[in-house]
Amino acid sequence: MHTQSTPLLPPFAGTQRELLSFHFGPPDSGQKIYIQSSLHADETPAMLTSVLLKRRLLELDAAGMLAAEIVLVPVANPIGLGQQVLGQFVGRFDLGSGRNFNRHFPQIPTLAARAKALLGADPRNNLLIIRNLIGEALLQQKPLTEFDALQLALFKLSFDADLVIDLHCSLEAVIHLYTSEAAWPEIEPLARYLGARASLLATDSGALAFDEAHSLLWWNLQQQMPASQPVPDGTLAVTIECRGQRDVSYAVAQQDADAIIEYLIWRQAIRASTKPLPPLLTPATPLAGSEQFYAPVSGILVHRANLGDTIQVGDPLFDIVDPLTDETTTICSHTEGVFYMRRAIRFVMAGAPLGRVTGTQAVRTGVLLGA
User: Fold this and answer.
1) What is the C-alpha to C-alpha distance for residues 362 and 347, in angstroms, rounded to an integer?
2) Which of 37, 110, 138, 313 is 20 to 30 A away from residue 47, measured at CA?
3) Which CATH class, in words, describes the domain spanning 2-283?
4) What pLDDT sits at residue 348?
5) How far apart are CA 182 and CA 12, in angstroms?
6) Using 50, 70 and 90 to split pLDDT, how confident is the model at 65?
7) By the 8 A CB rule, do 197 and 174 touch?
8) Where in the chain is the domain with CATH 3.40.630.10?
9) What is d(CA 200, CA 242) in angstroms, rounded to the nearest whole number?
């Protein structure tokens, strides 16, 4: 293993942060895996999973069992890690600009035109050409802010990976994941090993989150290139939500780290015997099919359903109790699916997001991820 430090653009005179990445396995193996955690910096369960992954990868690397280059970034957001307001950890948004750390990663608008002039009939050779073009374009980008420098540094570390795993967590949730329709056949075994209770699929959520910035880049090229210039799936990308912010324990983190290791064995990135695939607990559903619930009024929030419950149409999910009038407003589901995440708040203002239930039929369009 070797450690790489990437300095970020100093936001103020006399201050500078760095992004640390840990590199395992042979860099010339022909397969690269990139794993990061806590891009929303207050996602501690994901960070602990990375710690335990690192320990295991050190052992496997020392034993010569790694058949792929594996890059691990346990703290993907050193900016957000330093943001506290009156004792409250604020890691989702940059306090200087209000930008979400996991939204609107930069794209390369000239990529298709440049690729069209160079690609041939060999998909493998085309993959190498495209990665070279991406690398050249990233080298030319000049970040204006520390936020921009962080996004660029993360993309430089990961753009040439065959697989990108982005570890997050929600506020309160069961373990679930996000990926694209095209990637699902290769990601489904990961969902099995993790015991995912929901797998949400979308080619373009409209948010350009970190995982999608990789997969959508290749998907767009595939749509724009003619059949005579085939573009392979250059990067499979998945976001894993490691339950909720309070689900911090060695036992749970070890379970998730072990599941990722088993998946890497299945992908032949680790030389070891594969374990039989567990059953898929819940079929994948479209992200556009998830019903999102909002508070129609303000008041005390009382949960009527447990996370992971299978919900039927009409089932009550939330009560909102007005502490002045005693009036109770009940929010029921219009969807049949799994109640997979909810907010941690217990007193809500009108319009506040409350939680989500999976659904098999697309009911939403536009931007499919929250702010």
Assistant:
1) 30
2) 138
3) alpha beta
4) 97
5) 43
6) very high
7) yes
8) 2-283
9) 14
3-state SS class at 7: strand
Torsion of the alpha carbons at 256, 73, 140 and 105, rounded to the nearest 10? 40
CATH 2.40.50.100 domain range(s) in the chain: 286-357
| 157-212: pLDDT as tens digits | 999 999 999 999 999 999 999 999 999 999 999 999 999 999 999 999 999 999 99
Q: Where do the DSSP E strands lie in the chain?
A: 2-7, 18-24, 32-37, 69-73, 84-85, 88-89, 163-170, 172-173, 176-179, 198-201, 236-244, 285-286, 291-294, 299-303, 310-311, 316-321, 328-332, 337-342, 347-348, 353-357
Confidence of residue 1 (pLDDT cuts 50, 70, 90): very high
Residue range 286-357 in CATH 3.40.50.300: no
71-112 pLDDT per residue, tens: 999 999 999 999 989 988 899 999 999 999 999 998 899 999
Would you state the pLDDT for residue 368? Answer: 84
- Number of neighbours of residue 139 by Cβ within 10 angstroms: 10
Question: Over 153-192, what HEC string results?
Answer: HHHHHHCCCCEEEEEEEECEECCEEEECCCCHHHHHHHHH
